[in-house]
Amino acid sequence: MPRLLPLLLLLLLAPVLPASAQPQEASRFFPYTLKTTRLPNGLTVVRVPFNSPGIVAYVTAVRVGSRNEVEPGRTGFAHFFEHMMFKGTKAHPEGQRESILGGFGFDDNAFTTDDITVYQVYGPTAGLQQLIALEADRFQNLTYSEPSFQTEALAVLGEYHKNAASPNLKLEESLAKTAFTRHTYQHTTLGFYEDIQAMPKAYAYSRAFFERWYTPANTTLFIVGDFDDAQVLAEVTKQYGAWSRKATTVTIPTEPAQQKARAIHVDWPQPTQPRHVLAWHAPAARADTPDAAIMAVLAEYLVGDTSPAYKELVLEKQLVESLNIYSTPHRDPYLFPIDATLQDEKHRAAVDASLRREVKALIDGKVDAARVKAIQDHVRYGMLMDQETPRDVAIDLALYAGVMGPPDALSSYLRQLGTVTPEQLTAFAKKYLVDPNLTVLTLTPKAAAAGGTK
């Protein structure tokens, strides 16, 4: 499901830092030093020296995602606005920025999640000064015509249609709408279909959206790689210092506690594999609690490659093609979903019983402490090994800071991974992995409904 896939997938930026904060000590949990400065206008600038001669990553994290879309009829705008941010300014009309960056050899992209929008540029340090000026210009002075806006709105509608050809979007929409009754997580990052269809008429609103969320206090820069720190900070201060747009907040509806189990079934009109999802409401990811780390370890413990469920359902009995838990951290309480892709519809009851049996064992305190320790080491080691380039480091820093708040949230998360105990897994399961807190999503394809899949 697109929103649940780990990207690996947002409290306004933690306490105010002094204008020139001292470098934070590198630790055995996160092996790089963060130098963090908060400019007078509220923009947070994080620099991370990285041994990458001549290469730098420049990542801008804006704490706005589909979570922030509280107004009826206006869902999907965080993702849509990611597209509009490439439309140019008066100083650099559409296409000119990309031409300049391309001349240096920069790679340029962006993505939106439920909680954050991330813009990433990666390439030679030789072009960093020009890059800073270009990024500062578009974040302060973005401009686009109504016809350009309408053209891009139709492109986003086409993106929706493309995604709708796969069952994943339907699964995601159905689960979100069933599990959430008030919170804005009830719509996907793409937004409700009828809202996407109406986007071409929302030009004026799009300008208000830009003014509301693209503010310095709602934005953090992560600059990772080979650069002169004093020069970079001076250039960032020069280019972004006049950005004075005021921060905006909205009230996000609180999701009431679920009182009894829910279920939703999807009949898919085309041949595909049957799906079975067990999704429990789970707590938000915060830098000052271990919940995100507990969920990461718990996911591997329940259905990872070393789990009894994986050995039974995937390897031995081959009832399931794949087992996943997408425990992507979220800014507000979200879901802890086990997603099973079945080999055949006739195996659904057996798979459901097996998964519930594993959860019950956990609730009963039957936890393999040695396997918990191995999983902790594996998860932490895997995250560190994935941080091979300045871009890897910058994006991971942006994602965890965007969700949890503090710029060094990734370091806190890595530290917490090493402290998860078997007792915490049991306590978490007893509190959250219970039937009144559960939503069951099932999908049956046309071929299965007609007589089973092969």
From TrEMBL:
Alphabetical list of InterPro entries matching this protein: Metalloenz_LuxS/M16 (IPR011249), MPP/UQCRC_Complex (IPR050361), Pept_M16_N (IPR011765), Peptidase_M16_C (IPR007863)
UniProt signal peptide: 1-21
Statement: the UniProt record of this protein carries the keyword Secreted: no
Keyword Translocase listed: no
Domain of life: Bacteria
GO molecular function: metal ion binding
Keyword terms, alphabetized: Signal
Pfam family, one: Peptidase_M16
Positions of the Peptidase M16 N-terminal domain: 61-190
Domain Peptidase M16 C-terminal residues, every copy: 207-376
Annotated PANTHER family: METALLOPROTEASE, MITOCHONDRIAL-PROCESSING PEPTIDASE SUBUNIT ALPHA
Family designation: Belongs to the peptidase M16 family.
Name listed for the protein in its UniProt record: Insulinase family protein
